[in-house]
TrEMBL record:
Its EC number is 3.6.5.2. NCBIfam families: small_GTP. Residues 208-217 have a biased composition (Polar residues). It is found in: Early endosome. Keywords: Endosome, GTP-binding, Hydrolase, Lipoprotein, Nucleotide-binding, Prenylation, Protein transport, Transport. It comes from Nyssomyia neivai. GO terms for biological process: protein transport. Belongs to the small GTPase superfamily. Rab family. This is small monomeric GTPase. The keyword Lipoprotein applies.
Length: 217
């Protein structure tokens, strides 16, 4: 099973150059307190890089990345939101219509875990009903100064139906894995109509358009 991230673009190529026909596109949003590492996780996933002095995001940033799961290419349209409180009111613009969300906290920061729980509640109340939510306990490389226990977060995630992983944007631990776990959980079934909320949108070969429909066709 091919599960490696690939460079962005709507046309998926097999190693032999043949083009895969089934491409699903999903909107994914990252939410969480400032400085927990949202942008760093995206930078690691999309570009394989890590910056010690990553700048705080202003407003939001948009990036894309594709992953292959069996015969399906999943294209993520990623909205990396700004965690500073003054940007909170913008968040609904980014999670509205999203099929997936990664809510991030820093394992060294209890407040960021509480903030993550608040984001989860907001998503459960106001985002698409079928949204796939993953909880990421980031900065796992700094586990010597951890204050949020793995078991506590895991139990919370289980109780709330969330995917859960501890991640490190710095070492790349579980970064691809969390996106892949989301991609696997997203519905990619054939024949879903445009009204089926939460479905990804299936692109035809070579299709580059950015229509607003959000379904796998
Ligand atoms: N050690 C370690 N540092 C990390 C990790 N992820 C991010 N950082 C650092 O934490 C700081 C904040 O990271 P950002 O990615 O900017 O955090 P953010 O959540 O995007 O912050 P806002 O854009 O303000 O919401 C940066 O200095 C990163 O280098 C990690 O996994 N391990
Ligand atoms: Mg950021």
């Amino acid at each position: 099973m091919a599960t490696t991230p690939r460079g962005g673009g709507a046309t998926a190529q097999r190693p032999n150059g043949a083009t895969q026909g089934r491409i699903c596109q999903f909107k994914l949003v990252l939410l969480g307190e400032s400085a927990v590492g949202k942008s760093s996780l995206v930078l690691r996933f999309v570009k394989g890089q890590f910056h010690e002095y990553q700048e705080s995001t202003i407003g939001a940033a948009f990036l894309t990345q594709t992953v292959c799961i069996d015969e399906t290419t999943v294209k993520f349209e990623i909205w990396d939101t700004a965690g500073q409180e003054r940007y909170h009111s913008l968040a609904p613009m980014y999670y509205r219509g999203a099929q997936a969300a990664i809510v991030v906290y820093d394992i060294q920061n209890q407040d960021s875990f509480q903030r993550a729980k608040t984001w989860v509640k907001e998503l459960q109340r106001q985002a698409s009903p079928n949204i796939v939510i993953a909880l990421a306990g980031n900065k796992a490389d700094l586990s010597n100064s951890r204050v949020v226990e793995y078991e506590e977060a895991k139990q919370y995630a289980e109780e709330n139906g969330l995917l859960f992983m501890e991640t490190s944007a710095k070492t790349a631990m579980n970064v691809n894995d969390i996106f892949l776990a989301i991609a696997k959980k997203l519905p990619k079934n054939e024949g879903a109509g445009p009204q089926a909320g939460g479905q990804g949108r299936r692109l035809e070969q070579n299709e580059q358009s950015r229509q607003s429909s959000n379904c796998c066709k």
